[in-house]
Amino acid sequence: MTSALRAVVVGGGMVGAACADALARHGAAVSVVEPGPLGGGATAAGMGHLVVMDDSPAQLALTARSLELWDALAPTLPAAADYRGCGTLWVASDDEELAAVQPKQAAYRAAGRTSEVLDAAELSALEPSLRPGLAGGLRVPGDAVVYAPVAAAFLLERSGAAVIRDSVVELEDGEVRLGSGARVAADVVVVAGGIGSLSLLPELPLRQRKGHLLITERGGLDVTHQLVELGYLKSAHASDADSVAFNVQPRPTGQLLIGSSRQFDRPDAAPEWFLLRRMLDRARAYLPGVAALSALRVWTGQRCATPDHLPLIGWHGERAGVFVATGHEGLGITTALGTAEVLAAQVFGTPSALTAFDFGVGRFHGVAHA
């Protein structure tokens, strides 16, 4: 397919890479502008969990469709992307949380995703390292994990995009101005720079969210699924206060990647040790063997969130040729491919069932609807 369209993608992370790939597959000549490492930033700081979430119908549709696209992409990814269909185990600590399993399974079924309700004995048999006394859970076998920096680099290379190692300092009519003073002509500009998108479009309803991750030494604890507590929403999303939740991912190296924490409006990168202790206490409450492991590394990352926890995807609404793909909070890796499909549908008029949902900037006050 050929096109005379000139597109500039601002941001070389997972979302920017997916958008560049989608635009190029429709024939556009794509440039990606990224001043830092490709696949760095939030892409490198995440767990790489590919997970269907059902907080809202729009989120369920976007994550489910994105998992379909990841399934299709997986056979082409390089081995270093470490794509593994380990599945997710949603763990219920009590009967109240277990009661949430049935509606969650029904939502997944409606989205075409398979899941399996587990009683306490079945949960223990699948993951013997979990503590005794848990109520049960939900196994979602189609969920997966991926090493996102490699996946992003693969998509950028496949797109054939020209990578410009610079920053975009201003969006102008028909072009972008770089930090070096150079200008790049563009019929379409896609702002996919995470929280950095605010430097170009300060009117966007985005908020910075800091998270911590810790990786352990090799060996010592056998875990085969991505483990997440079913109380994740009430633990990690109930308010704007600092919060933690149980979330553990087995790595092929025999290490465990442990999350998660959530803090708003903390732009510094330094670990917050009090919150890290809370996060590890939470992990130990579900997985007691964590207490015997040594940590090899701790790091933080910055994501960006919208008021309704859905990303901003589509035309800016007021600026000709300017599109956005940002605000994915903790689901940027999962939903990058679905995001790119929505973007392509708007730019090229291609079909996508996701266009039935409103991911536009205009759903918030103050900016015209796309």
Which stretches are low in confidence, meaning pLDDT under 50 for 5 or more residues running?
Answer: none
How many distinct folded domains? 2
Rg result = 20 Å
Q: Quick one: how many beta strands?
A: 19
CATH-level-2 architecture of the largest domain:
3-Layer(bba) Sandwich
CATH topology type of the largest domain: FAD/NAD(P)-binding domain
Find the CATH superfamily of the largest domain.
FAD/NAD(P)-binding domain
First-to-last CA distance: 26 Å
> Overall 3D geometry?
globular
Query: In sequence order, what are the helices and strands, one letter per element?
Result: EHEHEHEHHEHEEHEEEEEEEHEEHEEEH
- Beta-strand fraction estimate: 25-35%
Largest sheet: 8 strands, mixed
Mean pLDDT: 94
Helix content: 25-40%
- Helix/strand/pairing class, anyone? alpha/beta
Q: Can you count the helices?
A: 10
Strand order of the largest sheet: 5-6-4-14-15-16-13-17
Tell me, what is the CATH class of the largest domain?
Alpha Beta
Protein name: Glycine/D-amino acid oxidase-like deaminating enzyme
Keywords: Oxidoreductase
Pfam families: DAO (PF01266)
GO molecular function: oxidoreductase activity
